[in-house]
Amino acid sequence: MIELRGVEKTYLRGAEEVHALRGLDLDITRNEFISIMGPSGAGKTTLLHILGCLDTPTGGSVKFDNLAVEHMPETDLVALRRQKIGFIFQQFYLIPGLTVFDNVGLPLLFNKSSKKNGATGNRIMSLLDTVGLTERRHHLPNQLSGGEMQRVAIARALVNNPEIILADEPTGNLDSENSERILELLKSLKADGLTVVMITHNGELASRADRLVRLKDGKIHLA
Amino acid sequence: MGFLKLPVKNLLRHRTRSILTMCGIAASVAVLFSILSFNKGFEKSLAREIKRTGIHFMVVPSGCAHEVASLVLHGAVIPKFLDTSVVDHIKKIDGIEIISPLLVAQLPNPGKGRIDLVYGIEMSHLAALKPSWELDGTVPAADDEILMGAEVASHYGIRPGGSLSYPTVNATFKVSGIVKKTASQDDAFIYMHVKKAQEIFKKPSGATAVGIKVTNPQSVSEITEALSERIPGIQIVTMNQVVNSISNLAASGKVISLSIAFIAVFISAVGVMNSILMAVFERTQEIGMMRAIGASKADIFKIIVKETTLLTLSGGVAGILMSAVGSRGIETFVRRFMPYVPGGNVVTFEPALACASLAFTFIIGIASGLYPAWKASKINPIEAIKG
Question: Most CB atoms closer than 10 Å: which of A88, A111, A174, B225?
Fold first, then answer.
């Protein structure tokens, strides 16, 4: 599904040149659950951004469903993110003024094809049912617990029917009980046929993925 | 979720800031709309008032036409008089329907602490010269009878049949009638027979002006040319010239006030830009997240422009409503400070003007949203969601 070959990412931090990724090779197959671990500065988040077409490598190649994305124009990258990729963030990034229902439906606002085929309300309700928040649909984010907010964020990531979920430390701000629940939710997505890539610092959770990729100094240390 | 819901919710997140910004826009649009309404109403009311005078032109002593315009419509005193012998010369010109000498002067009434404006006029010409008047009572028949404007009658508390004394000229008048309120300068005058006015002001053959009504309005320029040639020492002021003189006098005031209004709108637009820019900076992470979940730069740009437009349009609507509700107050204020304002309701609600003001506000909204929207669309999602 995603193929990374010799991926380099270098950027400037002031006058200093930072090599976030150094010739990284990685294949992600469809319906795989991968966890990525590594110390701070190992390049985990940079890798996730490249996988999610938010960033482009400074060297090497990235193929998404056999399409080379490193030189894709911005509009095509946006379309790819809309249609095939779902993001989950550690800080949830829910919009405070919108209800749970509207937060889940937010990506549909930018997806013209979803407006054409309609039934967006049913899709949102079905996802809220999946994450167990049907009763909370009219609540605002500040009325939810951390675990509930992350479940809203997961439903939001799924609303466009993506092929892959990229989760950047989804349990980083949660207690163990909620972390467990989120992991089970991600595993159920995998069971439903999605590909899941999760960055985590939690070794126990990471070990329960299909594959664990360890990064160190911008390179794969152990896969 | 509709595409307007998100901008609305974003604005409501900082209610106080949004309301204050909206108030700034509302105040400036209210000023702009009021000035535009006043300017438009001024022109209309002036034309209406001039039409209501019932004369086509005035013969006045040579001098400044502006003074004459002010004199006849406002009641100022100019120590220059025509000799009524000009009436005989004017009569020799064909095509003239009415020749009416007018004597306008001030008459002190120290007992009442007032200085009244007296308008000497040929009472037989009253119906032709003031066709829109409605009287409570009758037109003065005898020389010692007067007609009072509604305002001055109300001040004295006099009804038709009452009397009014002026000890300074040793005269007492019987009030034969009161002119019903015209909401114009006419309300402030006391009307008497021109002969009586000449007598009490000791100007037996003096007139401030001679009002002329012609039989065929098309022949005004022909007749005025003939009069100028035949009668030396006079000046002819047509009603169009009076309108132009007053309009020119008011023009600089209009330009200044409009400039101030536009500056106020500009300042409030900068306030809107500042407010939206702050909101964009505060929502950097959110915007980054939206970019990550599929929003294009254009989508972000549109959201911010919509927020700005909503804010300015709601301010614009509030401003127009404020202006419409407060139009009487604005009119009173303007009348206090402007030397001449035509009668009637000068500040009126004009739907076309309201639409034009809203369209202007809409353009201002879009313009002031462009920079914040551009900044928002340039937010790098990677940097934003790094936190």
Answer: A88
Option in A78, A81, A102 nearest B5 (CB) = A102
Q: How far apart are the first and last CA of chain B?
A: 27
Can you list the pairs that A161-164 forms with residues at least 24 positions away whose Cβ atoms lie under 8 Å? Answer: A162/A83, A162/A84, A162/A85, A162/A86, A162/A194, A163/A1, A163/A30, A163/A65, A163/A84, A163/A85, A163/A194, A163/A195, A164/A1, A164/A2, A164/A28, A164/A51, A164/A84, A164/A85, A164/A86, A164/A194, A164/A195, A164/A196, A164/A197
CB contacts of A49 in chain B (<8 Å) are: 382
What is the model's pTM?
0.73
Q: Which of A45, A95, A124 to mutate to test the interface with B (most CBs of B within 10 A)?
A: A95
Could you tell me if B9 lies within 8 Å of chain A, comparing CB atoms?
A: yes
Cβ neighbourhood burial of B11 (10 Å; 0-12, 13-18, 19+):
buried
Q: Is the pLDDT of residue A117 over 60?
A: no
- Give the tokens for residue B319: 């401003």
| B176-214 confidence digits (pLDDT tens) | 999 998 877 788 899 999 999 999 999 888 888 888 888
Cα B225 versus chain centre, distance:
33
- Which of B9, B294, B382 lies at the smallest CB-CB distance from A81? B294
DSSP for residue B124? G
In terms of CA atoms, which chain A residue is nearest residue B302?
Answer: A110
CA distances to A88, A133, B303, B375 from A128, in Å:
16, 5, 26, 34
Q: Max CA-CA distance within chain B?
A: 97
Q: Is the minimum CB–CB distance between B285 and chain A shorter than 8 Å?
A: yes
**Is A107 an 8 Å CB contact of chain B?**
yes
- Nearest Cβ partner of B1 from A75, A81, A109? A109
Beta-carbon neighbour count of residue B84 at 10 Å? 19
As for the ipTM of the complex, it is 0.89
The Cα of A100 is separated from the nearest Cα of chain B by a number of Å equal to 12
Tens digit of each residue's pLDDT (9 = 90 or more) over B138-179: 999 999 999 999 999 999 999 999 999 998 888 999 999 999
Q: Does A72 touch chain B (CB under 8 A)?
A: no
Q: Which alpha helices (H) appear in chain B, and where do they start and end? A: 5-13, 15-52, 65-74, 86-91, 126-129, 150-156, 194-200, 220-230, 239-282, 284-292, 297-325, 327-337, 351-377, 381-386
| Nearest neighbour of B381 by CB, restricted to A54, A95, A111 | A54
Which residues, other chains included, contact A194 with Cβ-Cβ below 8 Å and sequence gap of 6+? A31, A162, A163, A164, A165
Q: What are phi and psi of B103, to 5 degrees?
A: -125, 115
Chain A residue numbers touching B10 (CB-CB < 8 A): 97
Portion of chain B with pLDDT greater than 90, in percent: 36
On whether the CB atoms of residues B315 and B25 are closer than 8 A, the answer is yes
